[in-house]
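# nightly structure sweep
# worker-07 picked up a monomer target from the shared queue
# config: single-sequence mode, recycle default, output format = structure tokens
# input follows
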Amino acid sequence: MNTPKVPDIIIGRLPIYLRALQRLAEKGFDTTSSQELGERVGISAAQIRKDISQFGEFGKQGTGYNIAYLTERIQEILKVDRVWDVAVVGAGDMGHALARYPGFSHRGFRVTMVFDNDPAKVGQPIGNFIIQSTETMAEAIRQAGIKIAMLTVPAIAAQGVADELVKAGVHAILNYAPISISVPADVRVQHIDPATHLQRMTYYLD
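# output follows
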């Protein structure tokens, strides 16, 4: 359903639509329109219709979208109609927060392993997990078949850890380290650097 021909910028907007649809459903709504969705997410109705139409026809003019149906279809497109196991590498403040974050479970993800290279942290509890050593990380991830990892290590260690994750079979990395990492073409990386986003916003401040 999701093909390489669909621009990545459109794929990036689908989770925004999905979140808005889920919130509408929680409030008891059965149907919505591209206009209503647009007002909720700050994207034009025309853009929403264009994005969704990349994957088929999901609504009817005059009646809008059935929220439950469109939610299911977007979940299928994003492949979050299942639960993906995730490894967290780096048990610092950010790693602790991610391991304990309850919001992943109902959006298609489940943290199942946490790793760190600090001997003082290895073997310690973090939420429902015991921190494991990065020395055994590659084998543990490979045996578990984990495809997704969140990287919260210092910048100096990020590339080396990413290389190990790729060797272990990880194909998607959410990188919180403040540095770009190089990976093979078949591995997806999303960089999350709060300072970069803050700098982008300060441009608009007086």
